[in-house]
Amino acid sequence: MADDKASYIYLGLTILLWSATPAVAKLALSEINNIQLLFYCNVVGILSLSALVIAQNKLPAFSGYSKMDYLKMFGMGFLGLYLYYIFLYGSFAIAPPGQANMINYLWPIFVVLFSILILHEKSTWKTFLAIAMGFAGALIVFTGGNFSSLQNQYTGGYLLALCGALCYGLFSVLGKKLNYEKFTSMLVFYLFSLLLVAPTMLIFSKFVIPQSLNSWLAILFLGGLSNSLGFVFWFKALEKGRTHRLANLIYINPFLTLVYMYLFYGETFPLASLFGLALIVGGVLVQLKSGDK
């Protein structure tokens, strides 16, 4: 029971940070592209996580990792911090961030599927019903019930978001399976990701220094809080909680994203979004009453 409560606390912190990502990323993407944004977020993430690792006296943990561990961490950094954010920020740049984020929220479904295939966790029909209700609710929240808003001109952005969802679902489950110390392993993930992002930026883009205060504030939030600490909190939630339930509860994020979009840009959301929220909450209740062990 204590672990369950701790997992919900970590999940709540994750949701508060992640739900702000589309609104905050939109600020930075008005001046720099997705690869440049990822480069700066990696640098800030490394600095913030390094400070936390030193403050918690976790430096000795690095000597406890084997060469194979570091090889696995390279794969994790490539999958979850490099590829995922290339796809996600790319989708935000090509398609409307709210709609791209909705497609990205297929990742909890992939979390459940990969947890069955890799972790051999058991599931019931209620698990899939709850996840389906959550995604359907997220779809209605982001579109306001007007599905024609998903326009063909943004297909490339939607495909990028889908690829990102696949990467993050696999990244989450592998992170739970490997179960490394959270702060030090995340720092290593970021270091390997930066080694990949820096040449990618120089080859496919260029190095630029953001000029606006809004862009720097967005970078500091995304790199120092949303991306780095958000990942740590998410893996701690997975470590202590039940994967299926957490994957369903994460669908609270889309509604909070609309709240942030309203606060940042004054974007209103239609009444149909409230029905979507009701579906999300209904899916949560189905999962909480499913009796899964």
- What assembly state would you assign to the polypeptide chains in this entry? single chain
Strand fraction equals under 5%
Order of helices and strands: HHHHHHHHHHHHH
Helix-and-strand structural type: mainly alpha
Number of domains: 1
Shape: globular
Biggest sheet overview: none
Contiguous runs where pLDDT drops below 50 for at least 5 residues:
none
Describe the 3D structure.
- The chain has 293 residues and is mostly helical.
- It has one domain (2-288).
- It is built from 13 helices and no strands.
- It has helices spanning 2-18, 21-29, 34-55, 67-94, 97-104, 107-117, 125-143, 155-178, 182-204, 213-240, 243-249, 253-265, 272-288.
- The protein is globular.
- The mean pLDDT is 83.
Question: Which features does this protein show?
Answer:
mainly alpha; 293 residues; 0% strand; globular
